[in-house]
Specification:
mainly alpha, 10 helices, about 60% helix, about 0% strand, RTRAF, RNA transcription, translation and transport factor protein
């Protein structure tokens, strides 16, 4: 808006730049005059503005910079220790993003919070609350992350096993312990089978890399 623009220029000169004496600002203040553009052009030359009147955006930026420089020069002691709002917000954001930097481990609220988490996650209590917090972190990483939960939710289908058909090989003297030992042995055998499968896959992969391309595994021959 042309009227707003002219009022803006007058405000800058009256309040911040003050290049003219008060009595010499009449032509610039007469914003409804048809000669105002000429007065503004003269004003730009007087303040040594490097831009032309048609370059309005550049002119506005330059005049604002001049006003800020003059304002600072008049009140250097007031502004020299000021921190930009953007820097303050950045500092606050950093502090909020890292709330544990200034954490007081002796704070009763901190201890109560760690104890509540430990009880919720069924973690054994310890005299050092930082040790408990570390245990909580490990448990959360290993059991409660999205990947861990997804892996735990993957159901494995298997066949029912009759324990009485598997010989334990020793007797603990307790039927319950014997049954638990049988289960552990079967689980161990399952893990060994899975390990052997992975070893076989690794061997095949290595052979595929180092063997002759013409190897026929079905014939047990290498090359032609």
């Amino acid at each position: 808006d042309e009227t707003e623009f002219r009022n803006f220029i007058v405000w800058l000169e009256d309040q911040k730049i003050r290049h003219y004496k008060i009595e010499d600002r009449g032509n610039l203040r007469n914003i409804h005059s048809d000669d105002w553009p000429k007065s503004f052009e003269k004003y730009m030359k007087d303040v040594n503005c490097p831009f032309k009147m048609q370059e309005r955006q550049e002119t506005v930026d330059w005049l604002l910079g001049l006003a800020v420089r003059l304002e600072y020069g008049d009140n250097a002691d007031k502004y020299k220790d000021s921190t930009p709002d953007g820097a303050k917000n950045a500092d606050n954001t950093a502090k909020n993003a890292e709330p544990l930097i200034n954490l007081d481990v002796n704070n009763p609220d901190f201890k109560a919070g760690v104890m509540a988490l430990a009880n919720l996650l069924q973690i054994q209590r310890h005299d050092d609350y930082l040790v408990m917090l570390k245990a909580i972190r490990i448990l959360v990483q290993e059991r409660l992350t999205q990947d861990a939960i997804a892996k735990a939710n993957q159901s494995k289908e298997g066949l029912p096993v009759a324990l009485e058909k598997h010989i334990l090989g020793f007797d603990t003297g307790d039927a319950v312990l014997n049954e638990a030992a049988q289960i552990l042995r079967l689980l161990h055998i399952e893990e060994l089978r899975e390990l052997q499968t992975k070893i076989n896959e690794a061997i095949v992969a290595v052979q595929a890399i180092i063997a002759d391309p013409k190897t026929d595994h079905r014939l047990g021959k290498v090359g032609r």
